[in-house]
Specification:
Layout lengths: L1 H29 L6 H19 L1 E7 L10 E4 L5 H9 L5 E6 L6 H7 L4 E3 L4 H16 L3 E4 L18 H9 L3 E6 L2 H4 L10 E7 L13 H19 L8
Parallel strand pairs: 1-7, 2-5, 2-6, 3-4, 3-5
Antiparallel strand pairs: 6-7
Helix pairs in contact: 1-2, 2-3
């Protein structure tokens, strides 16, 4: 069984790689200019969707109210798997979303091009690098893009339990007075855990909450905003996985 699970993740990555080579020429071309980043977003959404389809991974999305896909947000999601960003690509269509993630992703052949151009990589233990990355995110929000960040700062060590949240996403939302869009991803930690294996065809559930407004909030409110988002995700996960979740 473990051998099959390990072979399946190789199968999934092979599909992604082969499809990426199909999409690569236009992606590499349009990553050259910021004006064509929306085309890159369109291409990688379909790269993600087709990859998931051929791997037998489908998603079921539960949408909250008053979600305007034409406006920008700071998107936050729980992070338990390499599948999370691929799922986010697919679910958030047609929103123009740029991702912020740890610098190691820029070294991965498939994702590296994105995190060296349209998206933002950040060396979290380097204050100057983090400041530079968030500066680029500031500019992107001003231009109407949404920014997606995992506030956990990395994959959970004990999924589906959440890690402590970092403050960057919430400070960014308050600074720009844009809503927080919360995604709770339920099943990726079981489908494709971070130990190099993957299950076969599966449905991945995701809940997109009603946006949390930040208008009128001051920077000192970032902690209460962070706590509110943490509680939303925590409640979702406790209801779905009461045995696996650890109660503080």
């Amino acid at each position: 069984m473990k051998l099959l699970a390990r072979l399946y993740i190789y199968y999934f990555y092979t599909i992604m790689a082969l499809l990426f080579f199909v999409f690569m020429p236009p992606i590499y071309l349009f990553c050259t200019w910021e004006a064509t980043y929306p085309i890159v977003q369109f291409l990688r959404v379909w790269w993600a969707k087709i990859s998931m389809f051929f791997a037998g991974y489908f998603y079921k999305a539960e949408w909250g109210e008053n979600i305007d896909k034409k406006r920008n947000y700071v998107v936050v999601f729980n992070h338990t798997s390499h599948l999370d960003i691929v799922l986010a690509f697919a679910v958030l269509e047609p929103m123009l979303v740029r991702f912020m993630a740890k610098a190691e992703l820029a070294k991965i052949p498939l994702f590296g091009k994105f995190f060296r151009t349209i998206d933002f990589s950040v060396q979290r233990d380097d204050a100057q690098d983090a400041k530079k990355a968030f500066g680029r995110a500031d500019e992107a929000l001003d231009k109407g893009y949404s920014i997606a960040i995992s506030p956990e700062g990395g994959t959970s060590k004990n999924p589906p339990n959440l890690r402590n949240f970092k403050s960057g996403a919430f400070r960014l939302a308050i600074q720009h007075q844009v809503p927080i869009l919360v995604l709770t991803m339920y099943d990726n930690w079981r489908i494709m855990p971070s130990n190099g294996v993957a299950k076969g065809p599966h449905i991945s559930r995701v809940k997109i909450h009603t946006p949390i407004e930040t208008k009128g909030m001051k920077m000192e409110d970032y902690r209460s905003l962070s706590d509110k988002v943490y509680q939303l995700m925590q409640t979702d996960l406790q209801e779905a996985f009461p045995k696996e979740m650890q109660v503080d």
